[in-house]
Amino acid sequence: MNKIEKILCDYPFIILDGGFATELEKKDLDLKDRLWSAKIIAEDPDAVRDVHLSYLNAGADCIITSSYQATVPGFIAAGYSRSEAVELIGKSFRIASEAVKLFYETSPDMSKRPHPFIAASAGCYGSFLADGSEYRGDYHLDLKEYKDFHRERVDILAGAGAEIIAFESFPCLEEAAAVAELMEEY
Q1: What strand order describes the sheet that includes 62-64?
Q2: How far apart are alpha carbons 68 and 66 in whole angstroms?
Q3: What is the DSSP code (8-state) at residue 27?
Q4: Which of 15, 28, 134, 135 could cross-link 126 (Cys pair, CB 3.0–4.6 Å)?
C-alpha cells in the first residue's frame, strides 16, 4: 500500500496546496524568468519555505515542490553550472521537507489530519522551452529523448528523498506516454 492509499484508509480526502507561483508573486517576487518559480529556489529559499508553510497552516495535506520548471538544461540556460542545477533541483525537495518538519513540530494537534507529505513537481518538456509550448504542445521529441529529459530530474528528486513525482501540464500525449514508460523503471 502506498502513502496515499494509507492516508485514504483513515481520511476521506487529501487536500493539495494551491498556486505556488501566485503566492510567491504576492510576496513581490519577480517570476518573469525562463525558470519561473524555480529561480526563487536559488534567490530566496526562505520565501519558498514560507509559502509551503502557509499552505500547510491553511490545511494542505500535500505540498508540491517549486520544481515545475526546474531542469538541468533550464538552469544551465539561465547561467548556472551543471552542479549548481543539480543542487537546486534537489534543494526544492529539501526546502519542502524542512517546511513539513517545521510544521509538524509546531502544530498543536495533528490527530485530526494526516502527516503532510510532498509531491515533487515536474513540468513537461515544453515548460523547459519557456516559450509557451507547455500550453500548445507543439514540440516533438522521440521516446528516448523524452525519457532521458525526465529521467535526469526524477533521479535528482528521488535522490533528494522524493517518493511522489507530480508530472504536471502535459499537452503532448507522446510525452505523457514516455513518462509513464519511464516510471516503470523505478
Answers
A1: 62-64, 117-123, 165-168
A2: 6
A3: T
A4: 134
pLDDT tens by residue, 60-90: 999 999 999 999 999 999 999 999 999 999 9
Report whether pLDDT(109) > 90: no
Q: Can you tell me whether residue 73 is helix, strand or coil?
A: helix
CB 186 within 8 Å of CB 159: no
Q: Which pLDDT value is given to residue 110? A: 74
Q: For the whole prediction, is pTM greater than 0.90?
A: yes
Tell which residue, 119, 125, 134, 131, has the closest CA to residue 178: 125
Strands 117-123, 62-64: parallel, antiparallel or unpaired by DSSP?
parallel
What's the rounded Cα separation, in Å, for the pair 154 and 110? 30
Which residue is associated with the grid cell 507522446? 174
147 CB contacts (<8 Å, ≥6 apart)? 178, 179, 181, 182
Contact assessment for residue 104 and residue 146, using Cβ atoms and an 8 Å cutoff: no
Residues 132-185 pLDDT 10s? 999 999 999 999 999 999 999 999 999 999 999 999 999 999 999 999 999 999
What is the set of domains in the chain, with CATH numbers? 44-183 (3.20.20.330)
